[in-house]
Write a sequence for this structure.
């Protein structure tokens, strides 16, 4: 069946939901392949990509047998030269962890959208949560530097998807876009700029004229950013990929010093390129005696509470991390020294762990589970209680 050709970038202003914007951000970034298994509240992403990607000339948009297959298909497609996307929620993200570990170890660029829902296990299908924060960094075994971005609006669903792909391609690493069910399904205005106004970064390849038989897939010795150029299967280069500790050629070698050198470079690569990560947003923090730390839909509820508290004379502000892994320590610590802290999240308490670690003091937790966002009234109550101390 013939597919009617559509523009890659749908320039204009729309009234759409976050799932639509996530897909359009991926399309604007130039994805060629998509593999996923349907799961609410991310199912709309799977359905819409399957419609949109063929219409812009994509190579593949497959609904596959399970999440394990989907993440490994993404790895293979990326090594064959494609920008790739997968999308999931809760239990599906759990199933992807082994594949994501392989992607970190083989320095495979890909983007995984995780629209969070309540758990454990199958938990609360179609409902919303923010309980996958720790899993992003610690879900796969071993040591790896996770990078994760979190949107709080439909506009950011579009913008941060492009940012996620640019970081992934630039650093040769998986990037997680950690949305929540409320942000992904709510409807609001989103503006898509012209294609020439969108910055799209692609992975760097081997230098022209290099001897393909002597190419080293993991050699970053002459790269200031510590990111090795990436050759693809089918281009004639001598390349090898493995999840085992490996040499610069990609050959397995179980050696203590080599393992230390490899893992250390992966962490340094993420650290020295931190200028690529979106900065945190702050609201009314300059004179704040109380600062709320929150992300996604919880940050929107927190902002309402901040505005109401300001109306009654309480000096409170909001610190909203956008890059949640690595945690924006340098931006956060100066605020933590001068203010009392409240963490608002849709979980029993995960974001509060790095907050208290870098604040070096106990913080107030406003938690919300059950599938619906925090009530600004409960946040305001916590603000007023802390202000009286």
């Amino acid at each position: 069946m013939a597919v009617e050709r559509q523009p890659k970038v749908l320039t204009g202003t729309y009234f759409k939901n976050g799932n639509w914007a996530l897909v359009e951000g991926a399309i604007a970034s130039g994805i060629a392949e998509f593999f996923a298994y349907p799961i609410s509240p991310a199912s709309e992403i799977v359905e819409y990509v399957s419609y949109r990607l063929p219409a812009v000339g994509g190579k593949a948009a497959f609904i596959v047998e399970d999440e394990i297959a989907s993440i490994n298909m993404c790895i293979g497609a990326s090594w064959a030269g494609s920008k790739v996307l997968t999308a999931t929620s809760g239990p599906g993200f759990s199933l992807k962890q082994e594949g994501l570990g392989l992607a970190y170890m083989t320095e495979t660029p890909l983007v995984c959208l995780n629209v969070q829902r309540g758990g454990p296990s199958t938990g609360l299908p179609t409902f919303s949560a923010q309980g996958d924060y720790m899993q992003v960094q610690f879900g796969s075994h071993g040591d790896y530097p996770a990078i994760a971005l979190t949107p709080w609006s439909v506009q950011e669903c579009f913008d941060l998807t492009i940012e996620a792909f640019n970081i992934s391609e630039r650093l040769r690493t998986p990037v997680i876009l950690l949305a929540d069910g409320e942000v992904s399904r709510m409807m609001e205005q989103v503006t898509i700029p012209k294609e020439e106004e969108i910055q799209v970064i692609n992975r760097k390849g081997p230098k022209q004229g290099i001897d393909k038989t002597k190419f080293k897939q993991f050699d970053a010795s002459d790269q200031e950013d510590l990111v090795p150029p990436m050759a693809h299967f089918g281009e004639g280069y001598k390349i090898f990929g493995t999840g085992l500790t490996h040499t610069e050629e990609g050959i397995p070698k179980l050696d203590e010093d080599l393992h230390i050198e490899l893992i250390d470079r992966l962490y340094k690569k993420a650290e020295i390129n931190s200028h690529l990560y979106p900065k945190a947003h702050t609201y009314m923090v300059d004179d704040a005696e109380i600062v709320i730390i929150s992300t996604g839909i919880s940050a929107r509820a927190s902002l309402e509470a901040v505005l109401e508290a300001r109306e009654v004379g309480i000096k409170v502000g909001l610190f909203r991390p956008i890059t949640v892994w690595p945690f924006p320590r340098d931006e956060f610590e100066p605020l933590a020294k001068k203010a009392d802290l409240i963490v608002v999240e849709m979980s029993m308490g995960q974001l509060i762990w790095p907050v208290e670690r870098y604040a070096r003091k106990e913080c107030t937790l406003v938690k919300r589970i059950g599938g619906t966002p925090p009530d600004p009234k409960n946040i305001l109550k916590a603000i007023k209680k802390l202000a009286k101390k």
